[in-house]
Every structure is written in structure tokens, then in C-alpha cells.
Amino acid sequence: MLKNARRMGLCAALLVASLTSAVNADDCDMVTPQFIDDGMLQQFSIRCDLPFIGFIQVAASSTFSPSFNFPIRASKKIGDDHYVTISLRVPWNIENIASEFWFRGLALDANGGTHLAGPAPVPVGIGDRVYLNAAPDAGKNLFVIEMEFEENTESWDELTVESDYTSLGYYYWSGSDHFTNDTHGRIVYRFKVEAAGRYALAFRSGHFGGHLNNDCWCAWDDDDSVKVLCGQDGFWRWQTTEENGGGFKKDLSVGVHTLTFAARSNEFSLDRFHIFRLEDYSRGEIEDETLTASGHEYQ
User: Fold this and answer.
1) Which of the listed residues 58, 77, 155, 267 has the most CB atoms within 10 Å of its CB?
2) Domain end residue (candidates: 105, 125, 145)
3) CA of 42: how far to CAs of 85, 134, 135, 215, in Å?
4) What does pTM read for this prediction?
5) Is 9 helix (H, G, I), strand (E, B) or coil?
6) Residues 51-65: pLDDT tens digits?
7) Does 145 share its domain with 248?
8) Residues 269, 291: Cα–Cα separation, whole Å
9) Contact residues for 110 (Cβ-Cβ < 8 A; gap 6+)
10) Same domain (yes/no): 103, 44
């Protein structure tokens, strides 16, 4: 343990020394990342014109004291840009202590030279969280949202009992049945539509008991809630059906819309959900739990 701590301290010292000696590069800009948060977890993507190497350093102020260092284990190139995604789970919650946080890192040019990427500030959330299109680079319209991205209410318990859930866990309704009203356990998700069209919902759910405990209430925007169910037993299933037998769909205009979940059946579980424009995706493409989660902004 002590040896590991010393090693981490040495790595941090080397990073700071490298960052101090690195030269700011005009061709290596860092942009405001899209990030998700859940409690003490902060996850975000960073873009740079050059590939990152070594560590990303994150702090709550421009002085970078205190700061936390995260090794880069994976990166992705989209077009001419390079992306890395890191997750912070630290003993302080950035949103509670600062209006912004800062990050910086080293990037490598074609000649093997290093350049300082950043430092750059990122505004921390003010207002309502609004989820963004997860597939803009593919020219498609998709929102990939984990249930636990928004705070659970009433008797929605966040669990990790059933295996193969995505992200940090899933929500399980431990309260009573509410077959006649949609006023219990309401959770609202806001998302920003960039291309108008007919959108549908696909949720990843779980339950046992056949036609029992297999549903919840759902509503687009200010519409009345309807019963949306999964007719297949087990964990996890993508079947998402409105009570009348069709899919849960709506024509959405450009702008911010809402999807509201409310409790209906006891022992029903929800892991994540996808909102997608029907003309962009087949059912096989959308029922994929490996799709990358949406980023968000605040409005």
C-alpha cells in the first residue's frame, strides 16, 4: 500500500513538472466537455486536436491545488479530433464547492513534441440538466440515458442486485402498486431535440411475475401518462409497449422536451432508456446496452 502511494505521488509530481514545462499549443485546444454526474461521480469527455498522453489533471480552481490525476487508458478519434473520457470519484463534490472546475493535460504532436492542452475551465451545472444527442457524428438522433442520472424519488431504490446492469446500478420500485394514478415516484428527464420527427422510447427493464409488476407510467411533455410495459419476464429486456399494443411514440419538434416516469407496479426495475428518431434506427440497432450515454448541458 505504501509503495503504491509513493508511486502515485511520484507520478503526480512528474505530471505537474511536465505540465509546468509544456508549451501552450494553438492547435491543441480543449473544449467544454459534456459530462454526467451521479452523486460523487463526475464523468466527462475532453476533445483535443492532438492525442493525449499520460494523465489528465482535474481541480476545483485554476491554481490546481488540490488536484487529482487520472491516467488515460483509452482514447478515440472522430474526424480530426481526439477524445478521452475519464470518471472522477473523489472525496469532494465539485458542484457543491465551486461554480466551475479546471482540467489540463499533455498532448503529443506528429514530431513527438508535447504541448499543454488547457488549462481550461468548465462551468458546473446551474439550472435544469438537459440531455444531448448521443449520435451527432453519425448524423442520427438518439438519447441514451441511465435512470440513475436523475435522483430517485420516493420508493425507487437504486440497486445492484441483478447482474449485467449498465453504469452504476438500476432503479427498483419497492413501493405499492399505483394502477389508478401517476403521482408517485415521478422522475423527469429533459432532452434537447435537434431534428424534428417521430421519436420512440425503448427502456431496458426487468421483472418477474408475467403480466404482474411489469410496467410503469410514462408521459411525453405535458401529455397524460399512459401505461408502458414489458411483456417478457427476466432481467434485462428491451420490449417497450404501450398498453394499447403499440410503441410509445410522439412527434417532437426542435427544442427541449421531457419524458416523465412514474411508479405503477411493485417490483418493476428500470436500468436505462433510449429515445430515438424512428427514421434513424432499426429495432436491432436501438436495443443495444453498449451505446454510449448522452452528455448534458444545463439550462
Assistant:
1) 58
2) 125
3) 11, 18, 21, 31
4) 0.63
5) helix
6) 777 777 777 677 777
7) yes
8) 20
9) none
10) yes
Regarding whether 26 and 138 lie in a shared domain, the answer is no
Chain center to CA of 40: 14
With residue 37 as reference, give the H or E element that holds it: strand 35-38
CA distances 129 to 27, 86, 132, 150, 295, Å, are 31, 20, 10, 9, 10
Of 287, 258, 263, 255, the residue nearest 273 (C-alpha): 287
Report the candidate in 103, 102, 57, 52 with the shortest Cα–Cα distance to residue 81: 52
261-273: per-residue pLDDT in tens? Answer: 999 999 999 999 9
Mean pLDDT lowest for which of 3-17, 198-212, 280-294?
3-17
Please classify residue 188 by burial: count the beta carbons closer than 10 Å to its beta carbon, then call 0-12 exposed, 13-18 middle and 19+ buried: middle
d(CA 137, CA 127): 27
Nearest to 150 by CA among 258, 226, 222: 258
Pairing mode of beta strands 52-59, 100-108: antiparallel
Name the amino acid, one letter, at 232.
Q
Cell numbers 448541458 correspond to: 297
Place of cell 420500485: 173
- Determine the 3-state secondary structure of 170 from DSSP: strand
Q: Which of 107, 280, 101 is nearest to 193 (CA)?
A: 280
Q: What's the mean pLDDT when you consider all of the chain?
A: 77
Specify the CATH number for the domain of residue 147: 2.60.120.260
Contact 209, 234 (CB under 8 A): no
Show the cell assigned to 238. Answer: 428491451
* Cis peptide bond N-terminal to 236, omega within 30: yes
d(CA 110, CA 59): 29
Domain encompassing residue 214: 130-298
In sequence order, the β-bridge partners of residue 131 are: 191, 296
Mean pLDDT of 204-221: 87
